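pipeline/complex-builder :: batch 7 item 3
reading input block
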Amino acid sequence: MSKMWIIARKELKDNFRSARFWGLIGLFVLLIVVSSYSVGFAFRFGGVAPAERFFRSVGTSLAQSFQYIAPIIGIALGFGVIASERERGTIRLVLSRPVFRDDLLNGKILSGIILILTAIGVSFLVGIPITVVLQKANLTLDDLIRLLFLLIPAILLALTYFSISLFISVNSNRSGYALVVSVVIWLFFAFIMPMISAFIASSILGPPPTFPAGINATRPTQLPPQLQQYEQNYRRITGTIQIISPNSQYSTLASAIFARQRQQSSLDIGTVIAQNWVSVLVPVVYIVVFVVLSYMFFVRRQESK
Amino acid sequence: MEFVIETEGLVKIYRDRGGETVALDGVDMKVPRGVLFGLFGPNGSGKSTLISILIGLTLPTKGTARVLGFDSVRESIEIRKRVGVLPENFGFYEHMSAYENLEYLAMLDGIPESEIKSRIMSVLEVVGLRDKASARVAGFSRGMVQRLAIAQALLKDPELLILDEPTIGLDPSGSEVFRGILRDLVKQGRTVLVSTHLLRELGYLCTHAALIRQGKIIAQGHIDDLSRKYSEVKGYAFEVIVSRSPEEFLLEAKQRFPVPEASLQGNRVILRTTSDLSKELSELALKYGLISLNMLKPEWDEIYTFYQGGGWNE
């Protein structure tokens, strides 16, 4: 058995036996169910037809849930990969054996990928049926396909944060430090960057034009042209600024899979990806860059103390 | 003489934003096969860095190190296949049992799966933890963890063991158990390199030693040679026990030989002389009913202080 697989197997065994891992998945299932239910509840009050209810409630809330779940899974599985081994001193026992440093990292990455797939897969497989039953929604084959394709951006987002946390972990002696830095990066992309982009867009475009008299501003059927133009410009600026945000790219891809394609008879994933290739490319670039950097730094680093 | 470890001009400089730290400064060290070799020095003297280089965890800035004939930089994997190591600041996976920890490490050692169980039980037997095989390491005392650490180093049945500060944190009984294990390992014909700053703990067990200070080896060789050189300069100490008139024996010894220091405790006379007077003193003591005469070995911290030319920096 290769050293990489021995290491991966041990990591998998540790996690599959840990209450923390399954507790996290339980929390995600709860998040999926509760958020779907609350959104569905709001839609029922809004008079949305049952056939549409599934997509507009479950689809939207599921996409939103994974926006939080995926980074948390990535960070939870990445921050301690090397830093906690250093902290506990186990890395010195492992590396004093005939093990190459890249074997250790390969084993950790392999197990990380498997655990991410498991966590997202199990959350999905348990959360969706519960949600469907609670919402009394009709699930068509096309709905199911769209839901399955939502896993692509979710997994990409989780792997992005896993690779970022891995890089931080490789360069840290304390897992707590690696966790804090990883969470700060997530907070930056999830909350601070949208605020910064909104601030910049507002500064460039100035205040939005006022509604013309006679239009109900609270529930307009169609926005007046000057407001549509303003909104388009606003979205273009914030989108340009947030192009480096994996969270923003996830939202774009998830929306493309769910909301915008809903009017078509069935999902054409090839078209979705072709139209949103940047949203696939950005997380892939993050993953490749941070994994390569992790290799470079880890292989060069010497465990002196 | 065959050497299992040979270093030549080993230099290690750590560079960071704060500047440079010279951890090793031209270390030449030779460890003969089949001995218990002590690497003695205070904290921060470069012992752990030297050991890290020997097993390929750290790269030297300059110089070479060969362990069992393999180069520590280019062939570190070959070294780690053959050498059992107890590194400093090590730790076990506390959520796992002693057996599971050893099983994982044995697999990384490349031990065939069919042999792993018997090998684990045999090393646990050596360190007296066989009945704790299925217990979680989290519940182990410091002494038990240290014994488990010896067990993991023995897994691959190595001809050379490198133990870095193995007695840190052990209570007196734990230290005694550990010393017993060390004695047995050497009896089995293994070479053991043990590094420590606790000279009194392990010093007298070793047959060979190297004294390291500020990254430099200040003395090395057979223990007898090191202590002889000390005695030649600092003098010899004898313990003589006689059955009759120890006071008169002491007086006569002082009159006949150059004895700068002497003391009397019951019928036990301690004499410090400037030369080796064991023959002369035993002849004299016969007149007073000689029971025993021993040349006292100097304490290791005295020897260290002598070689470093300063105080013991603890």
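note: DSSP finds eleven helices and 14 strands in chain B.
queue -> next item
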